[in-house]
């Protein structure tokens, strides 16, 4: 797109006639060319126009109150324009090209898919299953000395029951909370630790933690806000087992992505400090600082750059990693297969590729409460195409 068209689109915004596709076009141009040394449109001119756009939007009020820093316009404009902000970094010219075509392709839809919601299954120590999204509020079960309660907010809370503790000997029982595809859930563990489970995930934990250490096991993806617990003035460690990885915590916030269909286990520290090790070799692990992510391969064939049995540590944007917890997908140079795996879990859909997988990278944000068809329509602006057939997304060439 040339700069004369960019100036024309800026003017169309001011006139109130800018379409969603034109906003995507302008934003893509800005990212790819707007701040290049060859641009005759000055940086101040660009920023002034983009700031005018953002300042005029009602959603800016809440964000401005909590954070005065400038948010990348990509994540501003499209999130407001269509509740979706996804731009293919290789599709900058595609928007302009498609803008001049009389017939814009749309997703071939036989069946649409609604987004996921709060749903999970609680498996008690005796094997009984309770569908948490169907259960009423209040006490759901008694597990030894611990009462299982569903709050009005839909969270599951484990509370120590003093009456039960005085009437029977202490016993250790284990519960499991698991989410299906298209599901997520929150739980407050017996020690006060809060856990958010993403789709197709689970956590296995004791209903009463021992005084020496707290250990839970997860599969899939979970975000933790670990409560600090002390015994005789010493902190009681908190450990998370994910595959053959062990995360040791004293009190912190972190995210673990350990889906079986991902080649790498990703552990991201948001706040505090954690130590990562391998099962049976915890003393040979690595320490993470806030903003760091540790990668541990589970499939060497797909992760040749990471040595077996060792961690690779890198800096990441933690807001991108935990965006799912806040109700968003957020993509930062994410390839098409990884993006489609995320959509597959959240919409409970199978993904099939017709022909070779093209090398796409996506940047942007999408609300998780958006129907699948709308998501795919926006993705198609980046020159990737889809069909929806029953419970299947077909990626076409």
Automatic annotation (TrEMBL):
Residues 328-395 form the Protein FecR C-terminal domain. PANTHER family: PERIPLASMIC SIGNAL SENSOR AND SIGMA FACTOR ACTIVATOR FECR-RELATED (PTHR30273), PROTEIN FECR (PTHR30273:SF2). InterPro entries: FecR, FecR_C, Ferrdict_sens_TM. It comes from the Bacteria. The chain crosses the membrane at residues 74-96. Residues 176-275 form the FecR protein domain. Keywords: Membrane, Transmembrane, Transmembrane helix. This is FecR family protein. The keyword Transmembrane helix applies.
């Amino acid at each position: 797109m040339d700069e004369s068209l960019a100036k024309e689109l800026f003017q169309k915004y001011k006139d109130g006639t800018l379409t969603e596709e034109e906003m995507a076009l302008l934003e893509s141009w800005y990212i790819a060319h707007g701040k290049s040394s060859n641009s005759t449109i000055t940086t101040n001119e660009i920023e002034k126009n983009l700031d005018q756009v953002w300042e005029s939007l009602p959603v800016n009020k809440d964000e401005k109150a909590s954070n005065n820093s400038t948010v990348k316009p990509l994540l501003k404009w499209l999130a407001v324009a269509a509740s979706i902000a996804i731009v293919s970094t290789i599709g900058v010219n595609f928007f302009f090209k498609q803008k001049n075509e009389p017939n814009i392709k749309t997703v071939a839809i036989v069946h649409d898919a609604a987004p996921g919601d709060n749903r999970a299954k609680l498996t008690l120590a005796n094997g009984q299953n309770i569908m948490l999204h169907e259960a009423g509020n209040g006490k759901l079960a008694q597990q030894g000395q611990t009462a299982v309660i569903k709050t009005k907010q839909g969270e599951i809370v484990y509370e120590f029951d003093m009456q039960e503790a005085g009437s029977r000997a202490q016993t250790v029982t284990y519960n499991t909370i698991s989410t299906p595809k298209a599901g997520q859930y929150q739980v407050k563990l017996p020690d006060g630790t809060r856990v958010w489970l993403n789709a197709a995930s689970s956590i296995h934990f004791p209903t009463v933690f021992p005084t020496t250490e707290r250990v839970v096991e997860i599969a899939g993806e979970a975000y933790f806000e670990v409560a600090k617990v002390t015994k005789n003035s010493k902190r009681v460690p908190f450990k998370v087992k994910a595959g053959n990885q062990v995360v040791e915590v004293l009190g912190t916030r972190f995210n673990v992505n350990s889906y079986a269909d991902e080649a790498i286990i990703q552990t991201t520290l948001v706040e505090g400090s954690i130590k990562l090790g391998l099962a049976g070799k915890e003393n040979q692990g690595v320490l993470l600082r806030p903003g760091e992510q540790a990668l541990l391969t589970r499939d060497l064939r797909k992760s040749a750059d990471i040595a077996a049995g060792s961690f690779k540590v890198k800096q990441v944007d933690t807001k991108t990693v935990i965006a799912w917890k806040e109700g968003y997908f957020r993509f930062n140079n994410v390839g098409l297969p990884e993006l489609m795996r995320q959509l597959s879990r959240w919409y409970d859909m199978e993904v099939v590729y017709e022909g070779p997988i093209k090398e796409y990278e996506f940047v942007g944000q999408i609300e998780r409460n958006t129907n699948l068809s709308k998501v795919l329509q926006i993705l198609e602006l980046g020159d990737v195409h889809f069909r929806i057939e029953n419970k299947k997304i077909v990626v076409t060439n």
